What we know:
Layout: H1 3-28, E1 43-49, E2 58-63, H2 64-72, E3 78-81, E4 86-89, H3 90-98, E5 106-110, E6 113-120
Antiparallel strand pairs: 1-2, 1-6, 3-4, 5-6
Amino acid sequence: MSRKQTILALSLFAVGCLTIGTLWTVWVDVPLSIAARTPKSAKLRIEVWEPGRDMATVSMSLPKRPIDTMLAFGISPKINIDDVGARFELRQLVRDAQALPPGRRLVYRDRDATMYVWVESAPIAPAP
């Protein structure tokens, strides 16, 4: 193998690696830069309310880090409520919740159920 062929083979290999890396990044869907503001100890709070009930049908507090990992690997978690046929996809909810200012809640309605989503984090203390 001559020197030109070696350089050509290495160049093609580098271009192939860059192409695979770019396609992988697009497929994994890199999180928004807004998400970097939320601390690692943040929790995603979700409550689903149905009409005529005095308590939430679903109420959960999920650590944000495992949810980000699931979304990065392409797992798309969903919340299904059989009684009213409501279905919520967590991927879009997390994106929208991360874009909110602290203390604000998202409200989603699907048929008869209403879902409230917000990111709950401990207050960031100023440096001493």
